[in-house]
Amino acid sequence: MAGPRRRTVRDLRRNNRATVLSKLYFDGPLSRQELGPLTALSSGSISNVVAELVADGLVEEAGSVDSDGGRPRTLLRVAPGSGHVVGVDVGETRVRVELFDLSLSELARVDAPLPLAAPDGTYDAHEIVRLIAGGLTEVLAGTGVTPASLIGVGIGVPGIVDASGASGAVVHGQTIGWEAVPLEAMLRAPGELPPQIPLFVDNGAKTLGRAEMWFGAGRGARNAVITLIGSGVGACVIADGVPYQGSSSSAGEWGHTVLQVGGRLCRCGSRGCLEAYVGAEALLERWREAGGSWTAQDEEGALAELLAAPDTGQLLDETAEFLGAGIADLVNLFNPERIVVGGWAGLLLGPRLIEPVRRAAASYALRHPFAQTTVELGRLGADAVTVGAATLPLARFLETGGAERERIVSGASWMG
């Protein structure tokens, strides 16, 4: 039986770089003197690591602050232009591709509507690959950014993502008719994405969860649930600061927990799912059944018309109760300190529904755990899935102390 792997000087150097780079990214700008106690590294190690990161172009000076009786202290930050990341949101109505610098400032964006689904509700995976590849080409061409400066492309998709196989991420998207679609292999096919670019694929609700935990309403929480309410419904469960994946990465399919046995037919083929009552597609269908109609050509516009209509109060009250009951389930199962309601439909409905949702959740949840939980709206807007997707390659960049960027720039191949 092989013993534990011994740590090498190279491992220590990489870990020190990762520690400093992450601290500067999330808490910077910081001075060298501040980095010492924040990282538990010696002043000599800080000086060496900072010198390396500056020489590599990953860290830059960001002004100075006065010190007590001494020379001003130089502030340091991660250089925003030292690399670029792309986030892709494969939604259920469109594909959005966004290019960011390392501060996650948007540089370019392309939106492309999804082609019509087949009669059985299946979306053509080859067509979606074409939209992703075309969107990447367009955002790069519009900014002059080259593939060589890309740290990676993160992609959020509807459905369960299994990345355990040799061919990369495979997507099981039951509601869009995808059964074991080898999305990463398809994107790696000749003529699609440049072969040297690292790819990261995850469920869209989980990418939204990462974005809200890093930058939004989840920041500072150790145990939280970030929900995504769009055409469908999903969630990202954060346990002790780490996204909970389950045995096969399918944890968080909250939208397909049963709210009513034998209830409304859900897109997944089952009945009574939460998604069949609070997802935007289902909510609009319930409005249609009640005699409502809309003129908008897309779901977002149609949902806005529903909210403005004078005769939808009862429908919205019912939706708030259904959603509150679903949130109560999250409270009882996971005992989170925070639940965040996100997704484009969740944010559109939120101002009208958040208070009745809280009241309904309180009435269905156990009193003690609910008293320890706050229910909040997401803070990152409709771009949260795309931003979260972009954090997938960014997280690898930080974890490796910038080594992934150096490997890409040097032309070496990337191994997932």
UniProtKB/TrEMBL annotation:
InterPro entries: ATPase_NBD, ROK, WH-like_DNA-bd_sf, WH_DNA-bd_sf. This is ROK family transcriptional regulator. It comes from the Bacteria. Belongs to the ROK (NagC/XylR) family. It comes from Streptomyces kunmingensis. Pfam families: ROK.
